[in-house]
UniProtKB/TrEMBL annotation:
InterPro entries: 3-hexulose-6-phosphate_synth (IPR017553), Aldolase_TIM (IPR013785), HPS/KGPDC (IPR041710), OMPdeCOase_dom (IPR001754), RibuloseP-bd_barrel (IPR011060). GO terms for biological process: 'de novo' pyrimidine nucleobase biosynthetic process; formaldehyde assimilation via ribulose monophosphate cycle; L-ascorbic acid catabolic process. It comes from the Bacteria. This is 3-hexulose-6-phosphate synthase. Its EC number is 4.1.2.43. SMART domains: OMPdecase (SM00934). It holds the Pfam family OMPdecase. It catalyses: D-ribulose 5-phosphate + formaldehyde = D-arabino-hex-3-ulose 6-phosphate. PANTHER family: 3-KETO-L-GULONATE-6-PHOSPHATE DECARBOXYLASE SGBH-RELATED (PTHR35039:SF3).
Length: 213
């Protein structure tokens, strides 16, 4: 089994603060995620800046696309994104559009299961369509209401499909090994890193824990 990857979610709205945080964290993670509020606020210029500064990290742009899949995602792949996300609640044609454009650029499409009611069925459908990554995701508002991604991760991993499984939603050092053992191949951490006193040390700790799981 290949080693799990660690992804850091850059969820600030501030352009310069995002770049400064990425400078600290990039050496300690595999994937830099430009979070949804961040990409909406700062646009593709931020992707271009991070792409130029961090050639050794993959970059995920969390577009959470809901319509016009191919059209919306293409400029981001053109500008150097390695992964963009599309909502699992979107029309199947939208999801196919993002998968198609990812394939056209030799990149990856991640289907985010946030708010998908029948996660098992949707996961099988999009895996059959060629989705590269399934995102098991408890959003920030859902976390505030006390939800976690652990049961959903168990369900998706138990399907045994030939896709990568990403997990996001309040993952912290105490839960990293639990999610890797449960089948996550990409572990996402946002607040556990940017909210830490020393974000670089927090990122390094999470990556070490993931690799050792
Ligand atoms: O995509 C997101 C919100 O929609 C976040 O970036 C993701 O949940 C990771 O952040 P955290 O570890 O703080 O939950």
């Amino acid at each position: 089994m290949s080693k799990p990857l660690v992804q850091m979610a850059l969820d600030s709205l501030d352009f310069d603060a995002t770049v400064a945080l990425a400078e600290k964290v990039a050496p300690h993670v595999d994937i830099l995620e430009i979070g949804t509020p961040c990409i909406k606020h700062n646009g593709i210029a931020l992707l271009k800046t991070l792409r130029a500064k961090f050639p050794n990290n993959k970059i995920l742009v969390d577009l959470k696309t809901m319509d016009a899949g191919y059209y919306e995602a293409e400029p981001f792949f053109k500008a150097g994104a390695d992964i963009t996300t599309v909502l699992g609640t979107a029309d199947i044609g939208t999801i196919k559009g993002v998968i198609d454009v990812a394939n056209a650029y030799g990149k990856e499409a991640q289907v985010d299961l946030i708010n998908v009611l029948d996660k098992g069925t949707r996961t099988k459908e999009v895996a059959a369509l060629g989705a590269h990554i399934i995102g098991v995701h408890t959003g920030l508002d859902q976390q505030a209401a006390g939800q976690t991604p652990f049961v959903d991760l168990g369900l998706v991993a138990s399907l045994g499909l030939p896709v990568k499984v990403s997990v996001a939603g309040g993952i912290k050092p105490a839960t990293v090994q639990q999610v890797v053992k449960a089948g996550a191949t990409i572990v996402v951490a946002g607040a556990a890193i940017y909210g830490a006193a020393d974000p670089a040390a927090a990122a390094a700790e999470i990556t070490a824990l993931a690799r050792a799981a």
